[in-house]
Design a protein that fits this description.
Layout lengths: L2 E8 L8 E7 L3 H8 L5 E3 L4 E5 L3 H7 L4 E3 L3 H14 L18 H11 L3 E4 L7 H10 L7 E6 L5 H11 L3 E4 L2 E3 L5 E3 L2 H9 L5 E7 L1 H4 L10 H9 L3 E7 L10 H5 L7 E5 L12 H6 L7 H8 E4 L5 E5 L2 H9 L2 E2 L3 H4 L5 E8 L3 H16 L1 H6 L8 H8 L11 H16 L4 E5 L2 H10 L6 E3 L5 H13 L5 E5 H4 L10 E4 L6 H8 L11 E8 L3 H10 L2 H6 L6 H14 L1
Helix pairs in contact: 4-5, 5-6, 6-20, 15-17
Amino acid sequence: MEIVYIIVSRARYTKKRGRAFYVMFKHNKELLERIQNFTKAYYHMSVDMWEVPIKEKDELKYAFSDCTIVSSDKKIEEEFHYYQERHKNIIEDENKVYKFKTKPFSHQIQSFEYAKYNNRFLLADDMGLGKTKQSLDIAASRKHQFKHTLIVCGVNGLKWNWATEVKKHTNENYKILGVYQNTKGRYVQGGTKKKLEDLQNLDDDTFFIITNSETLTAKNKKKEYAILPELAHLTRSGQIGMVIIDEIHKMKSTKSQVGKAIHELDSYYKLALTGTPLLNEALDLYNILIWLGETTETLTAFKYKYCIQGGFGGRQVIGYKNLNELKERLDSIQLRRLRDEVLDLPPKIHHDIPVVMSSKQKKLYQKIKTQILEDYEEILKSPNPLTKIIRLRQATSYPAVLGEEYGIGAKMEAVKDSVDEIIARGHGVVIFSNWTSVTDGIRDTLKEHNPLVVTGDEPDEERQKSVEEFQNNEERNVIIGTIGAMGTGYTLTNGNYVIFVDEPWNQGNKSQAEDRTHRMGTTKPVSVLTFITKDTIDEDINELVKSKGELGDMLVNEDDPITQREIFKKILDVK
């Protein structure tokens, strides 16, 4: 084996700041060609060394995986040796042809080919392009290389959806951690202890391991991580050879427990999935870039390069800079296709349906609004001011939530008339609200249509059954759900009408929800009906959701207390 010497020192050419690898070896034509393939490698003739950016560490490991690595930095030496030991059993079979169980679209074949030459990347296809199938095919095609693939669901309720997709698109077995069959024959989600037992007793026939992101942060009685150390061991030993993280944008925070925990999942193959554009907030990218191995820079250095800081203490992020450079970095590890580019889908048509309140409902609305205005200053001091206007929003959607004497309200009557007409015409309809209390009212109002319901109150398995029933049973054409539970991950193409009884706070969440119906498999135009009660907060929220520029950016981060106060003030100042 050829000997390659590697040291780490201050970068002189490849970066103005930070460190770089310096690589030296005896003249060897093959090794010379390998290092010349690095786009940013620079040869220092005076010392006969090649300088390689620190961020290309994984590529360096791969390029010299068949060499003896010697370094004055023992940690670097051990890391390279560990890489070689861990992956020496990975034998690429160039002649092996993967047989797709379900026929892929051309863009799905493209990602399959892309994955052959990129072991870690962000699959950021637009919603509805089948990221689940793509990632399952990529993983299953590598079954000869490792024992297991770990799937981490950013949304808890989607574990069963992933299980259904595994059965549909592959011939592999799966295990949802902690799930077992009780004495009544029902599948039940067990706790942390059961999840750990499943992980420690995996059989070789289980290729896909499915769990939710909360598993990564689960703790035992000693308040220590209970499951994460075992997952870390399995990934670092190579038994789990690929980790797929769904909804990776939900783990963008470097301060959150789950945002820190994902870095313990150090498999050779890493696939991050999101349908959410990530350049709205530059800082959202940092944790993802770290996990995918694109960068090793500190958060402080990242902020210095891409954030404009000011405000109190000069530490608040008030803007961004060098975004073209950041986009180039993102594009180097990202595969993103838009639906309009790869699919010929029927149109999606939006309609705003105005509704006029009865005098009784108006009195209720004004009473609640007057109370809010009286407490205006105190509410602004609260950490979550938007929660203080939930009752006002519910008064426009389904006033019976606030008291049976107020009735179902004008909006619910209008929704019922529309649904009656839609069903009479033989169409399917998907209905969203923000709150379970309102979905309960919708279900009662539409009981003659035997609606299915997907909220956070049902077990995960029951939600999946409801989705499958809606998709496959011609007699079940109405499905009702909360935006939080049903607005992401599911395919609801049997519905070509979408109704919003009330809107989410930003356009991204609304688009994601309505695109449950407008995706691969859609054969008819999709009509999106948003019911808006006139002269109420509904109109203000609708205007904000549609807004561009400053207001649109504000609504990207509606969980931020400062952002909530700004939204609250704008809404209450309008009406």
